[in-house]
Amino acid sequence: MKQSGNPSVSKPFRCILSALWICLLAASLYASEIQTEQWGVFEAAFDGPSTGNPFVEVTLTATFTQNSNRVNVDGFYDGEGVYRIRFSPPTQGLWTYETQSNHPRLAGKRGSLTAAVPSKSNHGPVGVASTFHFAYADGTPYFQIGTTCYAWVHQEDALQEKTLKTLAGAPFNKIRFCVFPKWYSYNHNEPLLYPFEGTPPAAWDFMRFNPEFFRHFEKRIQQLGQMGIEADLILFHPYDKGHWGFDRMTSEADDRYLRYVVARFAAFRNVWWSLANEYDFMKEKTPADWDRFFQIIVSSDPYGRLRSIHNGSLLYNHTQPWVTHVSIQNGSAVTDFGRAILYRDVYYKPIVFDEIKYEGNLPQRWGNLSAQELVLRFWESAIAGTYAGHGETYLDPNDVIWWAKGGILHGQSPARLGFLRKILADGPAGGLEPIDKWQDYPFAGKRGEYYLGYFGRNPLSAWPFELHKAELADGMRFTVDIIDTWNMTITPAEGVFEIRKHDNYLFADKNGRSVSLPGTPYTALRIRRVK
Amino acid sequence: MKQSGNPSVSKPFRCILSALWICLLAASLYASEIQTEQWGVFEAAFDGPSTGNPFVEVTLTATFTQNSNRVNVDGFYDGEGVYRIRFSPPTQGLWTYETQSNHPRLAGKRGSLTAAVPSKSNHGPVGVASTFHFAYADGTPYFQIGTTCYAWVHQEDALQEKTLKTLAGAPFNKIRFCVFPKWYSYNHNEPLLYPFEGTPPAAWDFMRFNPEFFRHFEKRIQQLGQMGIEADLILFHPYDKGHWGFDRMTSEADDRYLRYVVARFAAFRNVWWSLANEYDFMKEKTPADWDRFFQIIVSSDPYGRLRSIHNGSLLYNHTQPWVTHVSIQNGSAVTDFGRAILYRDVYYKPIVFDEIKYEGNLPQRWGNLSAQELVLRFWESAIAGTYAGHGETYLDPNDVIWWAKGGILHGQSPARLGFLRKILADGPAGGLEPIDKWQDYPFAGKRGEYYLGYFGRNPLSAWPFELHKAELADGMRFTVDIIDTWNMTITPAEGVFEIRKHDNYLFADKNGRSVSLPGTPYTALRIRRVK
Lengths: 531, 531
Hints:
homodimer, 531 residues, alpha/beta, Immunoglobulin-like, TIM Barrel, 3 domains, nine-stranded antiparallel sheet, eight-stranded mixed sheet, 22% helix
């Protein structure tokens, strides 16, 4: 039996804990005591049978216990007679476990671990917060600025490393990518590794996974995690068209694949489950298949990682309780905050516009936004209290396009998205809430405290200081920053604005003052209460 | 026993049928044979007990049978010892019935009726058609142009008659109004009749209905029906605040009221059920109450009349299968077709924006749209493939405001809405479908056949003849009408436009011609294929 953890607590402390444990359970059946961080990954490996087909013939699960808290996790076969159990402790302190298996060599294995205080960069997994937003498990807000590189893990290794290097200097805290390789315009190349045993392109034994593929894939997940980037894993997609056939496996193969993926990946705290990209374009699947896939994930992922499904033209019913947040493709919904905002009312969940067209110069209309337009869409989505996703599609002589293969970024939007991310991080911890959603009112924030307004293409030269009445009172005082969202400048407006009731709906500056604006498009205002 | 029907078939034919029936069932238990139209109302009245409290102590139902088709309907107590059963035959031909009751005088009553060919103006009830639209049961399209007079049936009789007269000359084919009276700004008057026995304002016996109230109410429903106007009945509303207490009855009283209303009204084919106006503003109700109310209606309305529920700021989950269409209040969603259209994808049901602010001059922001703006909103909703609702709120010295009390219309929008209704009626029978919904594309219609475009406030002076490619082919020919939606003129553009493929997404006039436009706002284009 082999064990490994993420040692992060000082060795002396660990020794004391180990000693205590040994005293308490002298001669116990528990094999040893090991440390990992809370929300880190504990892994136990066991030798077991390698004959027959262990992927389908051998079951392995484990129950992790801390006081009355029990967590059941699935193990998986990693090839060459090695079986693994992964566990991400949701709380600190001692956890014990015991395995279950249909094979005597794997059943009844016991052990323990101690989940230590997380390291500084470990805030836990991202979850839903305040209905419409996200936060890490330790309460740190998470303001999603996503990007998309569908098939970056399926490119040659040097390109993958380049992608990671680019991401390290980019503003993105989430990336969407596919487990299966992609066969699509600008992306007709074979992957380095395949998820199943067999012969490319389409002679697969769907009953035998290729552990090397998954080991490689999870290495990338972990590297992203170390960079603070969430991995929005796309579990199915239609960009195969039968070339490999991963889009048209049997239900049994689909389900087995999902369980295997969850068993391997769920313990990584930066994993999100995106059931599919353009799920409705997968004509081999039925609506019932997608419902079943959700159920499989709900029942087998003990951590409740974020779950959604991304549409082509037909939206999934995101009101279903197993959908944690809404993942939307729409070519025009975020050109206007008044559009984007409507989804919030419908779903009462975080809204992520993962596909809003891309910055680039493709002939396809989904891939030729200007950088200005893409940045505008992010700002419109932000003041709608929603989130957006980036992608880049500049033609490349070798078809190395960020959106599919990663590599380097050529566009002008990422720097501006980083600027927006910083503005969001400096804003209300609870996220931006529309101030007056029933009206055409381009402000979001926290009523009475913080207002972020955005005027889009409108080149205003002045803005009368007027705010919706909610949570306001005569005499409150505010400062104003004028933000050039394209040139990334923040200019304080002169003086302080003191408000008084103006009419049934608005409070205004008591002297009727306006804020002078530069008369250029893409201007935002940040208004903060002075206390 | 008393019976009445809507005689509409010639008397000789009726005599023959009657004679046949008598031959077949000589000395039968069936009382008689009577005629009504298909989708009309058959009513049977029975004498029964008047002591105790018949509203709660006596049950009465009937089963109507035609071959293997069985329809169960609830009867109701109409006061003074009279019990009634109403039935709207969904098919033509002979129907027999038998009553069930916990009282021997009312149990086992049998009878029959013959449902005849409907009269010319009787198209049956309105139902959902083609997912997003409506049609009458006989297939005739129904293009909803609604209005709202919340409390018109609760005003003095002369005013009610005036409202009906106004409606007779107005373009509306649906009206929203409340069963319960309304206590709200501009509407603080007692109604003529109350739904329960008791003493105004708030000493009610919720276990005893006031039949006179309901007889009056259903007279108004029938009068609307004769005018071809659907009655969108608002069953609960928050505009009471405990003044009468109809907004805070017990669950038992709520449920009994719903069953009584359904038993009385469901047979009228122009009835729609709107569970509430601003349901979420009724703080005495819980989400579970609304779900239960839907279930009561689903189970007790044998005809499946249209069902929805209208929000204040919190949308009901309209994806629930018991919601037939979506009724939305939103102050800004229909200012832009690109907003309105988004709800279609979410719900896959007809979308009716029943409250979009009103034409008027109230100080309240929901009641001071210009006529131009209200008409614009109807057009935006139309090219989004959705429907909108009118209301009028001009201040009146006697507070006789259309939106609440009816009376006469002062505004300039109704004529334009009538013009729109005519345009819709002249368009595709299946309703307007967005041509390219993922894009910012202001055209709806039927691809390849009919296109209705609308440019809103944009004062275009020319429009290059370009149409989205779907269902198009080189050589197709089209005529164009230029529509001034405000001045209600239709001007044919010169010549015929023949198309050829222009790029990946568009077909254009083969000679690159544009359509000259007047350079004024509120312009629409109607483009029809020449065959």
